[in-house]
Amino acid sequence: MAAALLLMGTAASGQAQQAPAAGEPLKLETVVVSANRRIEKLEDVPQSITVLGEEYMQRNNVREFNDIVNLTPALSISVGTQVGTNSINMRGIGTTSNNLGIEGDIAVIIDDLPYAQPQQAFKDQADVARVEVLKGPQSTMFGKSAIAGAVVMTTKPIGAGPMKTNVSLFRSSDDEYRATAALSGRLSDDVAMRLFASKTNFPGLLNNLTTGRKQNGSGGKSFVTKFLWKVNSDVDVMVTPQYDHSLSTGNTAAITSIDPGVGYLYNKAYTALSNTEVLRGITPSPTNRDIRNDSPSGLESTNRGVGVRVNYQFPERTPLAGHALTSISSVVKNLSNDFRDNDNIDLVSTFYQLNHAGKPSGINAKAEINGTSDSKTSTQEFRLTSPDEGQLRYLVGLWFARNSLFRTYYRGNPFVKETNFTNYETSSSNLNRALYANGSWEFASRNTLTAGVRLNRESNNYMFHTIDSLSSSAPNNIHTGENMYVAPQHDENGITGKLAYTYHFTPDVMAYGSAATGRKGVAYDMTSGANNVNVFKRLPLAAETADSFELGFKANLWNNRATFNAAAFRTRFHDYQTSATERFSDGSQASVLYSIPALQTKGFEADTTVLLTRELQLNASLAFTRATILNWTQGPCYSGATDCTVPNALVPGAFLRDASGGGMPNAPKWKLSTGAEYRLPQGMLPFRTAFNVQWRTQSRVQGAISQDPSLNRPGYGIVDLGASMSDDKGKYKLSVGVKNVADHHYASGNVGSFLNFKKTSGPDIKSLGWQPARDAFRYFTVRLDAAF
C-alpha cells in the first residue's frame, strides 16, 4: 500500500527535485519554500504546497502561466471571450465574472511584487527559478487577493562568482521561438548584478483565411535587472527594475460543426450574411483551425516596475541580535489594450444591420471592441523576522498598498442598435493598510503550534462615466446619453487568521491540522452594465469571505530518496462575487454585481518523488477536487433548460433555476501529472544523456457556472517525451522533445455555440466551435543552452 501511495501523488516537493550527479550522495535535494515569508524546509510548513523547480520547468518547456497550470493539478484556467478576462482557479475556485471591478481570487507575486490584475500573469515567465503554489486561503500572509490561494514566483538569483553569461535558444516545429540571455555575477566584493533579456513568439494555432495570419498565439519581450549592494556586514540593498511587453492573440474560436441548410446571420433578411458566404473556404470539423476575421482579437500589455529591498541584520550584543528588519518598496505600472472582432466574421455585418428607421444602416464600419486598462500598484512593507533557531520563531509586518485602475471601453456603432453600442470610462482605487504577524512555537518535543493574524483596513473610491450608449434592448432606440457617477469613499475593516498544529513523528515525518480564513474586498461595476444608473444602488458589492480546514501528512523517506505529501481539505466561500441580470422598477434591465450565498471546495491532494536509482527518478502529482455551489436558488437559465421554475427575485415575471449542487466551471474532479527521468550512467557516452516522459490527464469539466451542458469539455490525457545531452562541465546542453505524442486534440475553452443562422422558415441553423489548447496538436521542439 505504501509503495502504491508513493507512486500516486501531487507535485509539491517532488517536482522541484533533481537527481544527484555521479559521485554525490544518493539523495534528493532539499526543497525550501517562503510561504510564511521566511525560508523554511517544505516538510516543516503545515500547509499544502506545490513547488516547481528550475530544472523541472526547463525540462517541460515552461514559458507562460498556462504551462505552470499544466504541471500543477490544483490549478486551472477559465478562458473567456477576451484574454484580459481569463481567470486563475485554485482547487476549482476562481473569478467567474468578466468584470475588472472584481478582484481575482488567486494572488500572483513575483519577487515580492504583487500583480494588481490576473491578466498580468499571462506573459513570459522565462527567468523564473522556483514556483510555489500555496493552496487554500492565504489572506493572512499575502493579503485580500489571496482568498483561494497564491502563486509565488522567484526569479533566478545573482551568481555568486565572477560574471558569467547564459544563452538559450528554442524552436518548435509549429514556428514558436524563444531567445534568452543572462549576464550574472559579482562586479566587486560588495556589488553584484544580474541582467536578463528574452524575446519570444508563437504565431498561433488558427489560420485566418482573410488576412493570411495566425491567431491564438502569444509573444513578447522581457528585461529583468537585479542590483545587489552589500553596504556593510549588516545592511544590503537589492534593486530590481523590470520591463515586459506582451501580445496575446488568443481566445478566438473556430467552427467545428454546423446543421445542414442555408441560413442568414442575425436576421433572415440579411441575405448577404448567409452561412455559405460567412464560412466560405472553411470546412467545419472537430479539428478545424480555419477562421475568417477582418479584425484582430487579443491583449497587448506593457508592464514597468521596480522593487527596492533593504535588509538590516541586527548585530550581536544588541537586544534584537539575530533578527532581520526588511523594507520592501515597489511600484508597478501596467497599460493594456484589449481588442476583439466582435462578430467573428470577415464581412461588415454593421452594413446590413438595421438603423433606427428599421432599414440596413449602410455603415461600412467593422464590428470591433476596444478597451484600455491603465493600472498602478504601489506597495511598502516593513517586516521584522526572528532568528531561525529556538522554540519560538515569529514574524511581524506592516503593509501599505495603493492600487488604481482606469478603464475605457468602446463597442459597436452609435447608429446601429443591434451592435449594443457603448462608450464609457471608469476608475477604481483602493488603499490598504495592514498589520500582520505569524509565529511557530515548539511548545513540547515534536509538537508545534503555528498561528497568524492580519488586521486590514481598506478605503475604496469609484467613478463611472457613461459617455453614451445604446443597448440592443433599449425601447424606441433611445440613447442613455452622458452620465457621471462618483461614489462616496467606502471604508471597511477586515481580519483574517490561521492556526495549525504539527506533530513530528520523527524529524522527517510529520502530520498537521490547520484552519484558515480568507477575505476579498468589496467590488464595483466596471462593465457596460453600469450605463444603467439603477446599478449604482447596489454598489459596492459586499466582501467575499472564506473559511478552510486542512489535514496533512509529509514524509521524507528512504534516507532522503523519497518524499510523500498528502492533504485533505474543505473550504467554504461566502458571498461569492459574480454577476447577474436584474430588471428594475422602471422596466429597464442590466447586468449587475451579485453575490452567490455559498460555495464549497473539498478534496484530497498527494504528491511524491522517488529516486529509485542514481539514474532513475519518478514524480507524480494528484488532485481530487469537488468544487460545488452550496446555495444558489437564483441561478441563470441556459438555452434548453427545462427546470427554470424559480421566480426571479430581480426580474419580476421572469424565472430562473435552482443551481444549488451544481459544479464550478473549469474544476476537474480528477487531475494527475506524473513523469520520469532516466540518466544514462556516466561513462557509457562522452556526454551526459537523459530521457524524460511526462503524462498529465484530467477528467471532464463544467464549462460555465450556468451549468449549461453544451459548454462541458471532455477529459483528456497528454504524453510528452524529451531527451537531452550535455557536456561534463555543464557549458552546453542540447534538448529535444515531442509534445502531445499521441496527437490528442482537446479544447481549452470557448466550446459550444459558435454562430446561429436564421432560416427563411423552420428552426435556426446552429453551429458549434472550439478553442484548441496550445498543445492540442503534436509538435516537436529543440533547445540549445550555453554557459560561458
TrEMBL record:
Predominant place of localization: membrane
Protein known as: TonB-dependent receptor
Organism for this UniProt entry: Pseudoduganella aquatica
Domain TonB-dependent receptor-like beta-barrel: 267-741
Annotated GO CC locations: cell outer membrane
UniProt lineage: Bacteria, Pseudomonadati, Pseudomonadota, Betaproteobacteria, Burkholderiales
UniProt subcellular location: Cell outer membrane
GO biological process: iron ion transport
Membrane topology annotation: Multi-pass membrane protein
Domain spans labelled TonB-dependent receptor plug: 42-150
Annotated region described as Disordered, given as residue ranges: 284-303
